[in-house]
Amino acid sequence: MTAALGAGECACRHKATPRTAELQADVQKRLNRAIGQLNGVKAMIDDNRYCGDVLTQLAAVESAVRRVSEMLLAEHMRTCVVEEIRAGNDGVVDEAMELVRRFSK
Amino acid sequence: MTAALGAGECACRHKATPRTAELQADVQKRLNRAIGQLNGVKAMIDDNRYCGDVLTQLAAVESAVRRVSEMLLAEHMRTCVVEEIRAGNDGVVDEAMELVRRFSK
Amino acid sequence: MTAALGAGECACRHKATPRTAELQADVQKRLNRAIGQLNGVKAMIDDNRYCGDVLTQLAAVESAVRRVSEMLLAEHMRTCVVEEIRAGNDGVVDEAMELVRRFSK
Amino acid sequence: MTAALGAGECACRHKATPRTAELQADVQKRLNRAIGQLNGVKAMIDDNRYCGDVLTQLAAVESAVRRVSEMLLAEHMRTCVVEEIRAGNDGVVDEAMELVRRFSK
Predict the structure, then answer these.
(1) Phi, psi dihedrals of residue D52, rounded to the nearest 5°
(2) Which residues 64-93 in chain B show a CB within 8 A of chain A?
(3) Residues D67, D33: contact at Cβ < 8 Å?
(4) Which of A97, B21, C23, C77 could be a cystine partner for C19, CB 3.0 to 4.6 Å?
(5) Quick check: C43 contacting D, CB < 8 Å?
(6) What GO biological process terms are annotated to this protein in UniProt (chains A, B, C, D) (predicted)?
(7) Do A52 and B99 touch (CB under 8 A)?
């Protein structure tokens, strides 16, 4: 789950088992693309572009962001949730369900 | 619906009735915020931040993008769809339903 | 939109242009199937059936109900919304957007 | 996860840890209500009821079914997933993610 805080470390939480370099690179690439698409939508709005085309682009951004969430949730289940359950901290299950609820809104 | 193409204009479609300056400014502000949030997620991934916190941020981006889609779809219905129906082009209704389907995925 | 109330008619609203017999039959068939699936889930719960199998059945019910909503929303747009816009009652557009919002939750 | 098959038992899977009587009663009550609502929609279609009212009823059914899925998924995580992880069968995590994906469609 979260690594113990070292001296002087900020209070924000960190993963005990870091994400693989490969997952990080994939996620960063997808986030960059989503940012690019959002900048594209900004330009379309400036250019008074037709609603259907703007909405199609926004739908693509939404599913790109959702895909990243799915990847990170799956990885969270495989690492943090498994580790915490094995360590006897079942509270991680309720937290995971809360993330699933938000994820499925 | 879409304005007739002037000489030399690109083939992409434009709105016959432009969005108000107020709606454009609101949408641009929301898109900027979503881009900022996505950049925030990039930094969280670099910083090995805990999954729950990253997923919470991503859920916020998703609902921000969805809110923009909703605003643009509502405005599309009030302008393009009404205009086209009044002009006898009921085809705009099927296009609107296709946008609704994608919007509700 | 809604037919004018005849003497002694209940206050509930009715469609001005009735749904075709074909659409009604299709919707009734789908609703019957969804009811059958829900009764199937009731039996699975009684039988202590494994969660994955029960959740798969519930997901099928949810998409069946969603499909019926989509069919009725599309038909609503093609009949009520078009009629009301042609009659100058643009208020129907805001009502349609409210239905879309609920439909896309 | 699933209880071992006894002689003559059907091939379908059963939960190792049965759902509490309380959860079962709650789920059955909600399923009965959803079935009642679907029967209500059938009557509305027969009665040519206005689209907005029918769609509102269908949206209520969809969220009722979703709520049941959420309850069963949460219970699945607290029992089957925890048990299997403790027994060293991490495959249950991928199955849980597949259920989450379907649940969030």
Answers:
(1) -55, -40
(2) 65-66, 68-69, 72-73, 75-76, 80
(3) no
(4) C23
(5) no
(6) negative regulation of DNA-templated transcription
(7) yes
Report the alpha-carbon distance of residue D103 to residue D61 in Å, rounded.
Answer: 15
Element (H, E) at C26: helix C21-46
Contact of D11 with D5, CB cutoff 8 Å: yes
Q: Whole-angstrom distance between the N-terminal and C-terminal Cα of chain A?
A: 24
Q: Which two tokens stand for residue D44?
A: 């509305």
Show the domains of chain C with their CATH numbers: 21-103 (1.20.58.1000)
Q: Which residues of D touch A69 (CB under 8 A)?
A: none
The angle at the Cα of C93, spanning C87 to C99, to the nearest 5 degrees, equals: 135
Q: Copy the structure tokens of residue A41.
A: 């939508």
Exposure letters D34-73 (e unless 16+ CB within 10 A, then b): bbebbeebbebbeebbbbbbbbebbbbbbebbbebbbebb
Model ipTM? 0.87
| Identity of the residue numbered A68 | V
Residue given tokens 């829900």 in the structure block: C38
Q: Quickly tell me which residue has 């805990």 as its tokens.
A: B50
- The amino acid sitting at B46 is D
Query: What token pair was written down for A75?
Result: 């990885």
Give pLDDT tens digits for D61-79.
999 999 999 999 999 999 9
C-alpha A97/C-alpha A93 separation (Å) is 6
Which amino acid appears at position B90 of this protein?
A: D
- How far is residue C6's CA from residue B67's CA, in Å, rounded to a whole number? 41
Q: Which long-range CB contacts under 8 A does C2-11 form with residues at least 24 apart?
A: C2/D50
Candidates D32, D61, D69; nearest CB to C65 = D61
Residues A23-49: tens digit of each pLDDT: 999 999 999 999 999 999 999 999 999
Three-state secondary structure along B29-57? Answer: HHHHHHHHHHHHHHHHHHCCECHHHHHHH
Question: What three-state secondary structure class fits D40?
Answer: helix
- CB neighbour burial string for A78-105, b if at least 16 within 10 angstroms, e if fewer: ebbbbbbbeeeeeebbebbbebbebbbe
